[in-house]
Amino acid sequence: MTDLPRLEVDPSSSTPPFEQLRGQVVAHVEAGRLAPGDKLPPIRGLAADLGLAAGTVARAYRELEADGVVVTRRRAGTVVADSAVAVTTRVRRAADDLAAVAREAGLDDAAVVEMVRAALRSR
Predict the structure, then answer these.
(1) pLDDT at 15 over 90
(2) Where is the HTH gntR-type domain (predicted)?
(3) CATH of span 17-122
(4) Which of 40, 83, 102, 120 could, after both became Cys, cross-link 78 (CB 3.0–4.6 A)?
């Protein structure tokens, strides 16, 4: 098990804190800084460290679990899932496909990003 990379929240960001946390964990998994089996901090502890409500961290963990990035096990806590790398690889491929289709259609970056944000909000 590796040391957990630092997680931070930018209170001035327009991105909600739970989404900042979720994105950082995914990025750490994709970069190999978090590996399958690595344990994330307990919700209350991370919330206290970051000055957030426990519900905010819990939401980030629920989103990560729904995406297959982490699993929560009794007694073991929340750990990076064995399938996490496969999930992030699928998402990266989908993003690459989206970029190719968007370029073929002549869409600019801002339009594509807004479409993705709208899709995430509707989820």
Answers:
(1) yes
(2) 15-83
(3) 1.10.10.10
(4) 40
